[in-house]
Each structure stands twice: as C-alpha cells, then as structure tokens.
Amino acid sequence: MLTYLHLACRFLRSALRSHFDVALENLALQQQLMVLTRSSRRPRLTPADRLFWSWISRIWSPWRSALVLVQPDTVVRWHRSAWRHFWTWKSRRHPGRPHLPIELQQLIQRMARENPRWGSVRIRGELRKLGLEVSAESVRCYRRSARRPPPSQSWHTFLRNHAPHIWASDFFTVPTVTLHTLYVFFFVTHDRRRLVHFNVTAHPTAEWVWRQLIQATPWGEQPRYLIRDRDRSYGGSFIPRAARIAIETILTPVRAPKANAIAERLVGTLRRECLDHLIIINERHLWTILAEYAAHYNRARPHRALALSPPVDVVPAPKPERFHISARSVLGGLHHEYEWVAA
Predict the structure, then answer these.
(1) pLDDT by residue for the chain (343 residues), tens digit each?
(2) How far apart, in whole angstroms, are the C-alpha atoms of residue 202 and residue 233?
(3) Arch. (CATH architecture) of 160-306
(4) In a designed cystine with 146, which of 9, 112, 160, 178 is the match (CB 3.0 to 4.6 A)?
(5) d(C-alpha 175, C-alpha 231), whole Å
(6) How far is CA 298 from CA 31, 187, 194, 200, 313, in A?
(7) Sequential DSSP letters for 153-167
(8) pTM of the model
C-alpha cells in the first residue's frame, strides 16, 4: 500500500514539475554525459565543469537529484572557492586607496634607496619640504618595493667621507742611460688624486724619506692618515715620528699592491704618459721631466674619476669675443694643453 502511494506521489510530482525544471535536469544530465564520453577511464572535470555546477546549484534547488559524477559536498566546495576568487579579483580591481602618481612613487623609492637609514616619517618630512603632502602610511607602503637597505653604509660612502684626510706614498724605480737606478718617491691625495710632492734620489734612506714628508706638509697642510707599503727605506722610526705630528700610518698587507691602488695608478700613469717615452740621463734630468709633467698632471690633465676635471680646480678664463684656440706643448710635444686666446 505504501509502495503504491509513494509511486503515486512521485508520478504526481513529476506531472506537476515545470518545464524549467525539466530543462535544467536535461542540461545537467547532458553535461555529465559529455564528461563521461570525453574521458576514457576516470572522468576528469575541468574548471569549466566546476563553474557550471556552481552556477546551476545557485539557480536550481533540486540539483542534487541530477548529480551522478561527484558528491554534493564537492559542488558546494567548488562554489565557495569560486566565491573567494571572485571577491579577490573584485578587490584588486577596485582598491580602497587611490594610487599615488608614478613620479611620486619613484621619488619615494629613490629617497629610501639613497638614504637607507631614513624612516617613513623622515621621508614624509623631506617630501613636505618639496611641497608634496603624503601620509606616512603611503610612504611606508611604497618604500617596501624599494631595494632592501644595506646593514651599514657602503664602502664607497665610507671612503668618500675619509678621502680628504688620506694621502698615499710609494716608491718606483727609473733606469738611466748609464744603467743606474734612480728612485722616485711621491705623495698623492685620495680625494682629488693631486700629486702633492715628489723627489728623486739614487740612495733612499730613512732620514731622506722623513725629510720628504716634512717638505710635503708645510704650514700644517698634512693628512690624517698615510697609506704606505712595508718598504725598509722608511725606517723603523717613521711610524712613531709621524704619530707625533698627528699622522697615523697605515701599512698595506704584504704583496698587496691593490691596497694602495691610488698610488699604484699614479705610478702607471707616470710610466705610460711620460717615462716610457724618454731616456733619462741623470737625477737632475729626471727631476726636471717629472716637474714639468706634474704641473700638467695637476692643472690640465682630465681625470675620469673626477668627472674629467683636473685635480687642481682652475677657474677658466672668460671666452673673448674674437678668439682662436692655442696649443701649448708639454714635454717637447709629448702632450698639449689647449686654451682660448684673443685674436
């Protein structure tokens, strides 16, 4: 009796079903049939299939009765995942806070990169001085994309701050026409690569080297640090005697010429641009040659490390209305210096 009643109820319910329910049920069954025919062994559902069942579960309440391939809880999980992805996409598309102009973003990142010890409030203060009003939270947001600041100042910054107080000294040898060896001793500054002092001798002694330091530092013009190698010509008393006049001597490691790179570079320049093209007769001849080249080196020779300017800043003469370019030879025409001359 109950079985007949149940069948009668199902028949009555199927008779009363709307055309819309029948169409959706057919659509769901056809979709599952397409999945079965598409897969040879185990049915594999694509993202489009999951999106279909998420959609049909929202518009058709008896969707579970037509589901065969997966469990109903799986469809619910798909729908929740689709909901999360949709709102994530929508939130990214319409952020709550408007973006700053790209030029201002780059300026914030530049300040954070060039001043690694500055905080967001300090950068905000610098921007305010430029007439740019930005909140500290915006500065904090955009400086995160900048490069992570180093744990300490760079070696370039450290050396640039100490360069005006550092000198370097070194020896190099020059052979003469009579096959004798002459020694050239010099001092060079680290900040402007200026050749401060040089002298020539055939017999370098500790007392002679100390006299060169005294001659190179008149009227209190002296370095705070002096970089030199471990040549025995300096003598054992050089370091304490230099300390008494407030000069700290820094010795380079053994067989490490790069530790005194500024002095070594000057030696190479003197050889390539001057001494390799001449035959030295005697000590006086060498001193005269180096004196002429030193004047050219300090006042006229452009240096790449100094933005193509000479070590000694020379105020250029005003350009006359009528002029021609005059060339002055250095070392008999080995080099030339050019300047404006009134016509």
Answers:
(1) 434 454 345 445 555 556 666 676 666 666 666 666 666 566 666 777 767 766 677 666 666 666 655 666 666 676 677 777 777 777 665 555 667 888 888 888 888 888 877 888 888 888 888 888 888 888 888 876 555 555 566 667 777 888 999 999 999 999 999 999 999 999 999 999 999 999 999 999 999 999 999 999 988 789 999 999 999 999 999 999 999 999 999 999 998 989 999 999 999 999 999 999 999 999 999 999 999 999 999 998 988 888 888 999 877 667 677 777 788 899 988 888 888 777 6
(2) 12
(3) 2-Layer Sandwich (3.30)
(4) 112
(5) 19
(6) 88, 13, 6, 19, 9
(7) --HHHHHHHHGGGEE
(8) 0.60
Rg value, the chain, Cα = 42
Question: 159 and 125 in contact (C-beta within 8 Å)?
Answer: no
CA 214 to chain centre: 41
Q: Quote the CA–CA distance of 197 and 291 in Å, as a whole number.
A: 10
Tally the residues of the chain: 343
Contact 234, 206 (CB under 8 A): yes
Q: Which residues contact 215 (CB under 8 A, 6 or more apart)?
A: 197, 199
Domain borders along the chain are 17-93, 102-152, 160-306
